[in-house]
Design goal:
single chain, alpha+beta, Endonuclease III, domain 1, 5-stranded mixed sheet, binds iron/sulfur cluster, elongated, two-stranded antiparallel sheet, Nucleoside Triphosphate Pyrophosphohydrolase, 7 strands, 45% helix
């Protein structure tokens, strides 16, 4: 249904929402700029990550890489180090590739046009619309989960919002509702409403500037719209990891080693590790014998750590392994010949500084804690 029919007083509705936004918007660092590069970085960081968690990362990141050019010229390990802790490292790799593309093809400026923006690695319809509307006032509606929920409630839409046909309908209604005189502000107002008022649970309809236009509110069905998505059942995974420590206090991290559960460490630097089925110590010992050519390593169990990644419920089982000298060869069979090794000292500070995932940090902390008690 065209939005003019669903919302007869569209102009008044737009005015109310924008007025509410101007009075209530949070003061966030990326809202103080119209620089498309900075807005792009913030939008990528905000995917799957809470605002409060993003703020310090965003500040450090744009201080270290203030321009597209500085990002494009950065070495990947340096970039990943500044991303470490945010998770979903494919986002960081994509912005790196996209920055290089922007330098090569767009004179180091984020392209002003949806088609060129969508050709960049990792830039989808939402990101392109958000960046181009906020930075360049292009009339493109940005549809994310928050906005989709608001739209579904305004129109009392039932069913799974993520079904492709339903999502396309939502994109169309978001575009029709967009205030073309202030598209960037409008998009941010819709997102802010979804984040702060029209929340997934217990929306605060009494404070909502759109309550007079909202069908779900009128029908008293805000609890059941949108429909809850059925959650994928959690999968339990156990990972045993070895923290090697030589007589000089150095440890060993590996990268690009097949059979080392590396996908669970975001393909970053990690301790030697393996998914285990039954006997963690025994299976890890055999893994190290093959991978590092160690002979009957003595593994000391440390405190297990819980770690969750999307639907995976991971138990990390760290083991301490003291060695005279760290192994200098990691290739044991063809499938592991691409591996590289990094030696760090001291253990904890070294790992904190390295481009590693939060799972590796947790293992390092468990080891440091264990060592402090020995
Ligand atoms: Fe959401 Fe309630 Fe506002 Fe409707 S009235 S848009 S359900 S907060």
């Amino acid at each position: 249904m065209p939005p003019e029919k669903t919302f007869p007083d569209l102009r008044a509705m737009r005015r109310r929402l924008l007025q509410w936004y101007r009075q209530n918007r949070r003061d966030l660092p990326w809202r103080r700029t119209r620089d498309s590069y900075r807005i792009w970085i913030s939008e990528v960081m905000l995917q799957q990550t809470r605002v409060a968690a993003v703020i310090p990362y965003y500040r450090r990141f744009v201080a270290r890489f203030p321009t597209v050019l500085s990002l494009a010229r950065a070495r990947e390990p340096v970039l990943l180090r500044h991303w470490a802790g945010l998770g979903y490292y494919s986002r960081a790799r994509n912005i790196h590739r996209a920055a290089k593309q922007i330098v090569a093809l767009h004179n180091s400026c984020f392209p002003v046009g949806a088609e060129a923006a969508l050709a960049l690695p990792g830039v989808g319809r939402y990101t392109a619309a958000a960046v181009l509307s906020i930075a360049d006032n292009l009339p493109l509606a940005a549809l994310d989960g928050n906005v989709a929920r608001v739209l579904a409630r305004l129109q009392a839409l039932h069913g799974d919002l993520r079904l492709p046909a339903r999502w396309r309908e939502l994109e169309a209604s978001a575009q029709a509702l967009l205030d073309r005189r202030a598209p960037g502000e409008w998009n941010q107002a819709m997102m802010e409403l979804g984040a702060m008022v029209c929340t997934p649970l217990a929306p605060r309809c009494g404070e909502c500037p759109l309550s007079a236009d909202c069908r779900a509110f009128a029908l008293d069905i805000t609890d059941s719209v949108p429909e809850k998505r059925s959650k994928r059942a959690a999968v339990s995974v156990r990972i045993a990891a070895a923290v090697l420590l030589d007589s000089a206090g150095r440890t060993l991290l590996l990268r690009n080693v097949d059979g080392n559960a590396r996908e669970l460490f975001s393909n970053l630097w990690q301790f030697p590790a393996i998914k285990v089925r039954r006997n963690a110590r025994e299976e890890l010992r055999r893994h190290l014998e093959v991978l590092l050519r160690l002979s009957q390593p003595t593994l000391l169990p440390l405190t297990p750590v819980r770690h969750s990644v999307t639907y995976r419920d991971i138990t990390l089982l760290p083991f301490l392994l003291r060695v005279e000298r760290l192994p200098n060869r990691i290739a044991a069979k063809r499938s592991v010949q691409t591996g590289r090794a990094m030696l760090l000292r001291p253990l904890l500070a070294g790992v904190e500084d390295a481009p590693v995932s939060s799972a590796t940090r947790k293992i390092a902390h468990a080891a440091a804690h264990g060592l402090s008690r020995v």
